[in-house]
Amino acid sequence: MSPVQIKICGITNVRDAEACVELGAQMIGLNLYPGSPRYVEPEVARQIVETIPANVRAVGVFGDGNVNSVRKAANTAGVRCVQLHGDFSPETGRELAREFQVIRAFSTHEGYRPEDVSSFPECDVLIDAHHPKLRGGTGLACDWSAARATLPFARFLILSGGLNTQSVGRAIAAVTPHAVDVCSGVESAPRAKNHRAIKDFIAAVRIAERFIDASSLR
Questions:
Q1: Residue 180 has pLDDT above 80, yes or no
Q2: 128 noted as active-site residue
Q3: Considering the entire predicted model, what is its pTM?
Q4: Is residue 142 a contact partner of residue 162, using CB atoms and an 8 Å limit?
Q5: CB–CB of 32/77 below 8 Å?
Q6: Beta strands in 50-209, from DSSP E residues, in sequence order
Q7: Fewer CB within 10 Å, N or C, the chain?
């Protein structure tokens, strides 16, 4: 099994961003959606982005908008990867993919069909839990079986939704994603990351990888 990449989402300050990097995360998420309790203004996001090394991907998270509004906020923030929640169309994903790496988020609601992600071939895919009002960071678990069924249709799959140190190992075993995304599972409170929780979460991911690799050799 290839190493599972780790994305810590909902970063709001330089100190937390630096801790994520030092502890081994490959991606950080910056919520550029004003409706999020973890929203950061694009100018503040840029200050955070400028402190992290180039090999750590800064992801701008959007809950709505159009090509122009996403492009403007992403460029102001200095991010080269955008994550799209909500009602973004395949055409919007295709247009943004000309300039950015794009992650299209899907929630495992009752009408979710794994094959729907095929409409976004230029995008990586993030599978999250469904919430009627909130877009990410809810602490709710997604449907792991639906996430696993999405793998054949996704070039790169990120598993999100209620993950924490206790659940991430089971989630990786059930889904075998390319990456995992955590937000509320490593927080003391919204906007306040718990650095010990981040360290423990990353350690749990690496233990799960070793267990799966060892199992595959039996």
A1: yes
A2: yes
A3: 0.93
A4: yes
A5: yes
A6: 57-62, 81-84, 101-107, 124-128, 157-159, 179-182, 187-189, 192-193
A7: C
